[in-house]
């Protein structure tokens, strides 16, 4: 399957979606000019991946900032993972947040409340 | 401009400068708010705050509020109405810094018919406590749709949550169809 590898900028996150090497990660800052256009290929990739997923999928979010428009699209990603989980796939979300960033920690807690999928909070030191 | 007018104008510039100083305005802009402008202003303010050793928490909150405020103007400022080009699809954006707080203030033209809905939304947000705002944010994220312009209807809620303060707002009439909408958010520097 095709690998998505997007290098982050000061307003778009780094994205790696690599089925073969089992890396699924979104990190950095997210305030793209057009959120829909930015996230569309990622959502499409996940649809294709869902048809033939790995035995286990660990999806990592390691964002330092995202705007409200991005928050909606991040939920769309999580809902796709939730759907895969409901269909019997082994899914784990890892939500990484900077140790001193309560807002980012809370954002993870909120997503964990909304979607029904195994969710792990991981703090790290910047 | 003749000589007399030039002098008058330069005196105005000095008064303007003094007002900015008096109100501790660190950034003021009037015009179209584009993505490039948003990026430039946020990075400028970020580097200023870093220089002044503002805490990470305060820096992040100011950044959040600035982005949402700027995007509100770029997505919602109305271009119609009075044919006055001064108001077309643009707004005023201002950051000021006091000894206790940062203030982010925006102003833009909106259609009068939107005032009622906007007031209801702002009043609902102002009536909620921390937990209420959290629930509203989650509800809006689940149920809301992204508008054509990419608005998620979450900006005001996010500002209220990040600042922990009420949203101060005001409408000033322009003519029968439009008003000037002013919104000010404060972020405590002692977080």
Sum up the structure in keywords.
heterodimer, A: 126 residues, alpha/beta, six-stranded mixed beta sheet, 6 strands, 33% strand, B: 191 residues, alpha+beta, Heat Shock Protein 90, five-stranded antiparallel beta sheet, 5 strands
Kindly describe this structure.
The complex is a heterodimer of chains A (126) and B (191). With 126 residues, chain A is of the alpha/beta class. Chain A has helices at residues 35-51, 68-86, 102-114, and strands spanning 4-6, 14-18, 23-30, 56-66, 90-98, 119-124. In chain A, strand 2 and strand 3 form a beta hairpin. Chain A starts with a strand and ends with a strand. Chain B has 191 residues and is α+β, with helices and mostly antiparallel strands. Chain B has a single domain (25-188), classed as Heat Shock Protein 90 (2-Layer Sandwich), CATH 3.30.565.10. Chain B is 49% helix and 22% strand. Chain B has helices at residues 3-22, 35-51, 56-76, 115-127, 130-143, 155-163; strands spanning 25-31, 91-97, 101-111, 168-173, 178-188. In chain B, strand 2 and strand 3 (101-111) form a beta hairpin. The radius of gyration of chain B is 18 Å and the shape is globular. In chain B, 29% of the residues are buried. At the A-B interface, helix 2 and helix 3 of A face helix 2, helix 3, helix 5 and helix 6 of B.
């Amino acid at each position: 399957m095709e690998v998505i590898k997007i290098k982050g900028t000061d307003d778009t996150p780094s994205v790696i979606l690599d089925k073969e090497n089992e890396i699924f990660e979104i990190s950095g800052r997210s305030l793209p000019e057009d959120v829909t256009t930015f996230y569309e290929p990622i959502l499409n990739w996940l649809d294709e991946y869902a048809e033939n997923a790995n035995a286990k999928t660990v999806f990592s979010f390691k964002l330092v900032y995202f705007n409200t428009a991005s928050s909606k699209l991040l939920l769309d990603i999580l809902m796709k993972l939730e759907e895969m989980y409901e269909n019997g796939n082994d899914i784990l979300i890892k939500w990484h947040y900077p140790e001193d960033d309560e807002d980012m920690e809370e954002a993870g807690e909120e997503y964990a409340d909304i979607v029904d999928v195994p969710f792990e909070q991981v703090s790290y030191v910047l | 401009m003749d000589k007399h007018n030039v002098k008058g104008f330069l005196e105005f510039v000095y008064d303007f400068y003094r007002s900015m100083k008096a109100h501790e305005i660190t950034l003021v802009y009037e015009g179209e708010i584009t993505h490039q402008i948003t990026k430039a202003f946020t990075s400028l303010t970020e580097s200023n705050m870093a220089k002044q050793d503002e805490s990470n928490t305060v820096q992040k909150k100011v950044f959040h509020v600035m982005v949402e405020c700027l995007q509100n103007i770029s997505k919602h400022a109305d271009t119609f109405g009075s044919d006055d080009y001064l108001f077309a699809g643009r707004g005023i954006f201002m950051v000021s810094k006091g000894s206790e707080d940062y203030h982010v203030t925006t102003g833009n033209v909106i259609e009068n018919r939107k005032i009622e809905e906007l007031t209801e939304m702002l009043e609902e947000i102002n009536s909620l406590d921390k937990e209420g705002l959290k629930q509203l944010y989650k509800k809006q994220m689940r149920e809301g749709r992204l508008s054509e312009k990419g608005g998620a209807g979450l900006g005001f809620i996010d500002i209220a949550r990040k600042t922990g303060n009420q949203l101060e707002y005001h409408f000033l009439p322009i003519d029968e169809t439009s008003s000037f909408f002013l919104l000010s958010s404060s972020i405590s520097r002692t977080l």
